[in-house]
């Protein structure tokens, strides 16, 4: 399991929006993240089976298998598609006598098709419950000192 610690910013029907600070490890994880490259924090929608409150500091976990699968899909498939397109374009280009043009067109065509596949796969991947981040424990409960009650 890959674990992160963050702060709950919003609750919504059994899910919590958790704000975590970006680290270099974030480049390896694409499971359910809503990343904004211009910010130092990212927001993740996580399942909340334990009942957290806003502003609680929590630990959330993402299955390692899901993160590895997402990384392969995002990085590996486009690379394989690009190389396949170039090789296919080269083969067809030798037959027709215009190999360079067909290599470039084949590479970009296969790359484009792979990006459409990734977008479709992403929708399915996010729907699968086992791929979603889950809050596993509360590290620190937020206490509203003005009212004297837990939030």
TrEMBL record:
Entry coiled-coil feature ranges: none
Stored Pfam families: RseC_MucC
InterPro entries in UniProt: RseC, SigmaE_reg_RseC_MucC
Keyword NADP included in the entry's annotation: no
Spans traversing the lipid bilayer: 72-89, 95-121
Protein keywords: Membrane, Transmembrane, Transmembrane helix
Lineage top rank: taxon: Bacteria
Protein known as: Positive regulator of sigma(E), RseC/MucC
Native source organism of the sequence: Vecturithrix granuli
């Amino acid at each position: 399991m890959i674990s992160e610690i963050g702060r709950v910013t919003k609750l919504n029907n059994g899910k919590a929006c958790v704000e975590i600070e970006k680290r270099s490890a974030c480049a390896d994880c694409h499971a359910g993240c809503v990343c904004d490259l211009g910010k130092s924090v990212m927001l993740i929608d996580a399942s909340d089976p334990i009942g957290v409150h806003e502003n609680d500091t929590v630990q959330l976990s993402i299955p390692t298998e899901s993160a590895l699968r997402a990384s392969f899909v995002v990085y590996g498939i486009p690379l394989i598609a690009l190389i396949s397109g170039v090789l296919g374009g080269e083969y067809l280009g030798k037959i027709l006598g215009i190999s360079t043009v067909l290599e470039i067109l084949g590479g970009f065509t296969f790359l484009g098709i792979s990006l459409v596949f990734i977008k479709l796969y992403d929708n399915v991947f996010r729907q699968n419950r086992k791929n979603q981040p889950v809050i596993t424990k509360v590290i620190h409960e937020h206490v509203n000192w003005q009212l004297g009650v837990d939030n």
